[in-house]
Amino acid sequence: MPRRRGNLQKCDTTDRSFTISSLEFCLSQLRKADPKLVKKAIASGDGLTESKDDVSTRLSEAHRYAVQQCLDNAEQLAQLHHQLVHCDNVFERLQSTLNGFQSSLGSIGQDMKHLQMQSHHLHQELENRQKVRVELSQFVDDIAVSQTMMKTINEVDANERGFLEALHELHHKITLIVQRGNGDAVAVNDTMPILEGLKLKATCKVRDWLLAKMFQFRKPLSNYQVFQHQLLRCRFFYEFLLHHDLISAKELQDEYIDTISKMFFTYFKAYAARLFKLAMKDVATKDDTLGNIDSAKPAGLGGLFSSKQHVVRNKATVFSIGQRHQILSEDFLGALIVPHAATQNQHAYQFEALFRSIQLAFIDHYSHEFLFITDFFLVNNDEAVDLHTKAMARAMLVVLKSCEEQIALSWDAISLHICICLCDRFVEVLAEREVPDNSDYWSNVQDLLWSRLNIVMGQHYDSVRSVDLKKLMSSGSLDARPHFIVRRYAELTSAHLLIAKTSKKEMCDKMEAVLENSEDSIEQLLTRMSAMQPTQKNKHVFLINNYDLILSIIDDEDSKHSKVYEIVHELEQKSIDDFVEEVLEPHIGYMIKFVNECESLLAQGHTQLLVRYNDKVGTVVANFNAKWKPAVDSINSECIQLFTNFSLGTNILQMIFTKYVQYINRFTKILSHDVFLKNPVCSQLVNVHQVMLEIKRSKPIY
């Protein structure tokens, strides 16, 4: 009965739910409807006139129907109820099982945490024990002195490899004990006396061995670099002394510096004495100056344009450089000169070759010694520089003195200039090797060279300024052709320019001043010589030929940018311009004068004054028409014979004819002025194109 009542309550609830949902649906539809239609329906009362009794009747019928449905399905509902009760029991047992499992899992988690804590503690204990074991083992190894090490230090020779290894081990033990401190370890107090005894024995053996090696440097003809190599192989010997016996280390350092300093002094003194004996005997002397005319050849051109045969002096080159500049490039780092071998082969050398050899030997030893000192004595910066300076000071002085003596005897300007450039190259080599260059030494050497070069070049200037022109006139060497003094100057200047180019540096101000002074003295000499020429035309030809000789000798792509080349080129152009005017004067001087005067009046705006030149036009035109063709032939034949350089003569001839045509054009332009238009003579002037055609026909071909 209760089950039935429950079913009826369920049906009643279902019916009530259905009614409420229907009502909600109706209300939702009502919200969407048109308010006016709803209002009208309510007002009319359609569908709302059903009585209350009818509604109750319908609801009772629906209730009875629902109850009947529940009664018809009573067995199924009862079966469903039994199944639900059974499921509740099963779920209750499952819940109790899961609760038990959950409690078991909680206890397992606690056990795992406990095991993890135990594992962490065990791991920490293991690590601590291992650290203690490592440090303790290391400490025991550091303070333990083996019988093998003691025997090696006491009995084995210092040259043996085993002694070096034992020395490393001894140094390691002493250093670690000192760094850690004695502390409370009783074993350290037991070990230190033994280590101190071994250290004393080792320092004595090492000191004696190093001193013995250094004394070997003093043997005559010994190769000291072999002994240095042996010292470097046992460099730790000195390091051991530096750490454990500073007094002995300082003693060895002073002994080495003193020994090597004396050795280098002896070596370079002997090498310089033997080396400079190989100098060429036939070198430049005080009399080999630019202006010395006593040793000159009879012909003014030195045989270039003369058919006579002259005897060539068997003398070292004084003014031309030849291949001597190669010492600055290809031969710079070549082999050193070995005096006894050169003497046997009867070789002789220019001063710059000897200078290169001794200075190259010096910087080689200088560089090697600096590297050895920094490597063996474990020094750097200022301390290394000080030691190195002490080691090389004596050798530096003897090399400087030897070079000073030889420089003072030199009269070869080319050689002196090459040596100056060699000094710059040596400084660059030292910089590449990362060795201090000792600027004071190279400054002293260059000062000596510059001072001597200025003296030698001063001799050349004075000799040029004091040339006896009467003596030249009497010897017949003063004509319009290039002079041998100018050729000397050109070759010497070309040598200086080539040296500067080969050194791959811009010419310094000192050398520029030397070349300018030399050019000034030659310019003054040429001015004096040109004044001795019989005619003004010969004067210009003489200057042009000599200036052209200078430019042709120093004609180089780099030399063209030098000040000397620019100065000489300007002087040549001025002389050529004067010569062109001088050549044209006898042939069309009347036309030149007429053109210059008329153009001056036109430039000043005095055109009314041109009227007075109307009568002169006829004379100018008549003279030109009668003489222009012979003038072209005369100019052509004259210029070919005047210049020794055929190419130069052709260019000057072209310039003369160009100027010739320009004067004709300027004259023609003046005749086209209004003042001369009515003059009938103007139309009689020879056409300029006819003149140009004749010039082209007579143009020489070389």
UniProtKB/TrEMBL annotation:
InterPro entries: Vps52, Vps52_C, Vps52_CC
Residue stretches making up the Vps52 coiled-coil domain: 71-241
GO MF term list: small GTPase binding; syntaxin binding
Localization annotation: Golgi apparatus, trans-Golgi network
Highest taxon in the source lineage: Eukaryota
Domain Vps52 C-terminal: 258-579
Keywords in alphabetical order: Golgi apparatus, Protein transport, Transport
A GO cellular component entry from the record: GARP complex
Similarity field: Belongs to the VPS52 family.
Protein name: Vacuolar protein sorting-associated protein 52 homolog
Annotated organism of origin: Caenorhabditis brenneri
Source organism phylogeny: Eukaryota, Metazoa, Ecdysozoa, Nematoda, Chromadorea
